[in-house]
# Entry
Amino acid sequence: MKHVIDVMYWPMTIFLMAICLKEARADLSVPVSEPLLRAMIDEVDRSKSELKLDDLPRPYLVVYHVEDRIGLSMEASFGGLLQSKTQRSRSAICRVRVGDMTLDNTNVGRGGGTRGTLPLDDDYTAIRHTLWRLTDQEYMQGVEILTRKQAYLQDKLNEDRPADYTAAKAVKQMNPAASLIFNQQEWTTNVERLSARFKRHASIQNARVSFFAGAVNAYSVNSEGTQLREGDTGILIGISASVQAEDGMFLSDSLAYIAEQFDELASVDDILSDIDDMCAKLTTLSNAPTLDQYTGPVFFDAPAAGRVFGSLLSHGVCAQPKPLGAGSSWDERSLEKKIGLRILPRSFEVYDDPTNRMYKDEALVGAYNFDDEGTPSRHVSVIEKGILKNMLAGRAPTRKVVGTTGHARGAQIGDPRATIGCLYIRDKQAVSTDELKTELISVAEEEGLAFGLRIETCQAGGWRQPGKPIYAYKVYVDDGHEELVRGLEFLQVPVRAMKRIVAASDEYAVSNSLSPVSTSIISPAVLFEELELRKPEKELDKQPILQPPHLRGK
# Structure
């Protein structure tokens, strides 16, 4: 009898095991959609030839960009899963240029492009219907904008106004579809486990672990003949934590792990160890003294130096046309007027190369094959012997820069603009990190200071405004010992400060940024001759009255 029962239940056991395995397995695959591509091609051809409003000009360029994606996101805090969802979407953006390349409806302040959502199934007619509606709306807006732009220019002297667009060669390339397969249950457990680690650290007030894994097929079609399909996958684990000092000052730090495939990620045990290290450093930081102000030499470790160059250099080396009617503040963002002039020490060189997806064993989020105008990416030398030689550019010319370098990319809306991809900064006279610290002490001593300042990491900043230091150390002149301090922010840093970089190291670090577009900066540690920092002037919150729940009974 028992044997009979076992035999009867065996097929059911196999069936239940199959269900469990299926539920545990996350298949984030986006199949190729031939109806989607065909609908894009057919509708762009029809729009180019037939789209016309009375006696107004036809569009000279119609562009469709569609992202067919699937992604799983999770978030957890102190061991509890806050949310977990899988989302499938097809988003489209249509851009229509009306007029001609000399004068069209772009670059007047309004972000170009009309967005919409496409059907998820491969219904050719339904997809074309949505594209038709987006194109009609974008064209009518384009005609209105062009009319206003022409009226505005009639009253202005614009002899040196550059053209609005330049020609480029059409590209056709169909790459394989994206696919990302992993054990979802395992990673749900991992996310909960990572977030629970913060329970061991009594000083941590807030902590989050976020997880995202996704795949996307990106399609680009335009009326010049470009037809592209690119598959891509990505995984991001983001970890953040904050503490509060006795005086009420909040202090925070974060970790990020980025990869294209799961076998490229750090192990969970390594991430747990990194969390422990981060929490220990934040706890030490919360007990560190504040520093009211500092003016003198500043040593940036390589991770912090990447952030600083992001603020001082990354915007300026990109040739972006000045929007019609923009004020003088726009000109200050660009280094275009400094082409041919030295902006870094003579031993420095800078180039951008988005073609490499890895630097050593670290992923570069700024890497790409084609920019958002369908131009292949390529290596571009920007600064040679400290002199600004070239600018990164898209197809929209400026007064001094004409011709794309394949660096036009855009955020969710707006016309693509020149943006760095993977910016490499090198010093041909680089020294060791120990020698750089010795030089910091020497410069501080020459200035009659008791200490110099070393910044290990800092937050992301804005144009000419480096982000706040996270970990900063006084480096004393008498014996070289270091003392952690907190509560500093930079005053605005002029671009000319880069000419007064004393030295750079021969060790490099990657600084990845995901907003507003994905970029990477590969930078050495650097020593600036003089920068100014101060303690922020703002009211601070009081400490919480009760301990957090996970510490009760301890």
User: Anything to note?
Assistant: Residues 104 and 524 are 42 Å apart (CA to CA).
